[in-house]
Amino acid sequence: MINTNLKFWRRELSLTQAQMAEKLGIKRSLVGAYEEGRAEPKLATLVNMARLFGITLDALVTTDFSKRKNAKAAAQLQAQNAQMAADSGNSRPGGNLRILALTVDREQNENIELVPQKAAAGYLNGYADPEYLEELPKFRLPMLGSSGTFRAFEIAGDSMLPIASGTVIVGRYVDDWLNLKDGTPCIIVSSKEGIVFKRVFNRLKDNAMLALHSDNPLYSPYQIDVEDVVEIWEAKAYISSTFPIADLSLTRLASIVLDLQQQVSTMKKV
């Protein structure tokens, strides 16, 4: 039902293929391919479609909304969803639906966009703009697999030592903030703090806040209001040109132990 429903909902929303592609963060050619059944959307794109249409993912892939009775049911469902969202207010902070823009390569594999330090300020304005993302450097890391959407951020400062300033953190997009586990290292994109790399402690159910902790004890923890949070990316890998400094005390100890072993071996031969 995906191709049928995509065409139906695009027309219901009075969108061109280009406009639909922009809202979903994909190329226009992909919308045409999906509608004609020449390609199948990835899970992340299906989720974004369901959110945009105001229906469940199950309904998107199993229900033919092009039939009049189902179209009416869809309209009722959209109204119910809107009312539920209005009634719930902040009772489920972090559970609001978001549409994530992304880019793909020629084989339709999702790219990992790199946000350098110099582009951090611009990212706050362009994170949802496919044209902005197209201008960012891109790469792929096959070792991360295909489960999830990834983005890379170059961090600044020494709050997360021994991970040094200038390190690139590769994060997987977090959709459900409510289930973030305490102590998870994440890239937090917020309207007030910008882009920061911290360990997150989940306080959403208690007071709609996230507590952010640095690994460097010289930096004090602080809290951030969920309303200020734009995106959360769970850290999955990092790339750095700075190698860890060896613990010289352990090196000397190992040397002493080796010398003693050699001396004992020599005494036994005598």
UniProtKB/TrEMBL annotation:
Occurrences of domain HTH cro/C1-type (ranges): 6-60
Gene3D superfamilies referenced in this protein's UniProt entry, alphabetically: lambda repressor-like DNA-binding domains (1.10.260.40), Umud Fragment, subunit A (2.10.109.10)
Lineage, opening ranks: Bacteria, Pseudomonadati, Bacteroidota, Cytophagia, Cytophagales
SMART domains assigned to the protein according to its UniProt record, in alphabetical order: HTH_XRE
UniProt entry keywords in alphabetical sequence: DNA-binding, Transcription, Transcription regulation
UniProt-recorded name of the protein: Helix-turn-helix domain-containing protein
Organism: Hymenobacter rubripertinctus
Source taxon at top rank: Bacteria
GO MF, one example: DNA binding
